[in-house]
Amino acid sequence: MIDIERISPKAHQMLVYGQITAEDARKFVDFAKQQVAADEGGNLLIDMVSMAGFSWSVLAEELGHIPALMSWLYSLDRIALVSDEQWIRSAARLESALLPGVSYAVYDADEGEAARAWVLEENERAHAGAVVERDVGADVAVIELVGRLDRAESENALDLVRARLAATGATRLMVVVRRWHGFDPDAALSAKVMQAKSDLLGRLDRYAVVGGPAWLRQMASTFGPLVKPEIRSFELAEEDAALAWLRS
Fold first, then answer.
1. Positive/negative CA dihedral, 212, 217, 220, 225
2. What distance in Å separates the CA atoms of residue 149 and residue 197, rounded to the nearest whole number?
3. What pLDDT does residue 199 have?
4. Pairing mode, strands 103-107 and 230-234
5. Does position 63 have pLDDT exceeding 60, yes or no?
6. The domain at 131-247 falls in which architecture?
């Protein structure tokens, strides 16, 4: 099923759930054509968390209306897609490359509130709030990752850390990864991010990585002894131990 509703004067939500049929596809195409005829762009939230599957007739139905669909999509300002399926999120990121000029953000199932806030233009950054700062005292800078890192949020995280270190004179950093949703490739290519990381590593004596996927902790453990600052990784349950090591 596909249900479409207006959630603000400038935004619609498309809830996709259960089995998607050719009739649902026609409903979607008709809506897109109406929007084009009304010359109405705006923002779109696509929630696919409860989608059970689709039939091949759906694909055939949509392929026959590609020009109308693309005309509508190109008219949008922001598109947010929420799904608990990795293949859907990956396909959406590829699709976003075909829509230059449209801000397209992809979210995991537990990021639905962030997606809605962005579509409603309550947040300027698509993944605003993925990084938060914690105050544990002036001797250690602490940030927590609770979402996906795109370029804007990566730059924001580094700005937070550098400001904290400059204000307190601290030389120790703890990054707590509570929920890992990956990072956008262009974040790693940002000149600002690369320069800030280099500057940051030069300021630190110790750096603790707490939580996150196993490969991230393994990388920290492997390269930690070889670089400055000294880096150690900890399980999420070992946050107190990480803080004690930083302060030792």
1. positive
2. 15
3. 82
4. unpaired
5. no
6. 2-Layer Sandwich (3.30)
- Mean pLDDT over 98-123 rounds to 89
The CA distance from 3 to 88, in Å, is 19
How is residue 99 written in tokens?
């829509």
| pLDDT at position 221 over 90 | no
pLDDT of residue 224: 61
- Report pLDDT for 172: 94
Q: What confidence score (pLDDT) does residue 59 get? A: 53
Can you tell me the distance from the alpha carbon of 108 to that of 232, in angstroms, rounded to the nearest whole number?
28
Residue partners of 53: CB distance under 8 A and separation at least 6: 19, 20
How many Å apart are CA 150 and CA 87, to the nearest integer? 19
For the domain with range 2-119, which CATH number is right: 3.30.750.24, 3.30.70.980, 3.50.50.60, 2.140.10.10? 3.30.750.24
Is cis: bond before 229, omega within 30 of 0? Answer: yes
Closest by CA position to 181, among listed 162, 158, 153: 153
What torsion do the CA atoms of 137, 142, 146, 150 make, to the nearest 10 degrees? 140
If residue 196 lies in a helix (H) or strand (E), which one and from where to where? helix 191-203
Q: Please state whether the predicted TM-score (pTM) of the whole model is above 0.90.
A: no
Judge contact between 8 and 40, C-beta under 8 A: no
Q: pLDDT tens-digit profile of 194-211?
A: 887 888 878 899 999 999
Question: Which pair of tokens denotes residue 154?
Answer: 């990566």
* Residue 18 β-bridge partners: 51
Domain ranges of the chain: 2-119, 131-247
Residue type, 138: A
d(CA 102, CA 86): 22
Nearest to 156 by CA among 129, 123, 189, 134: 129
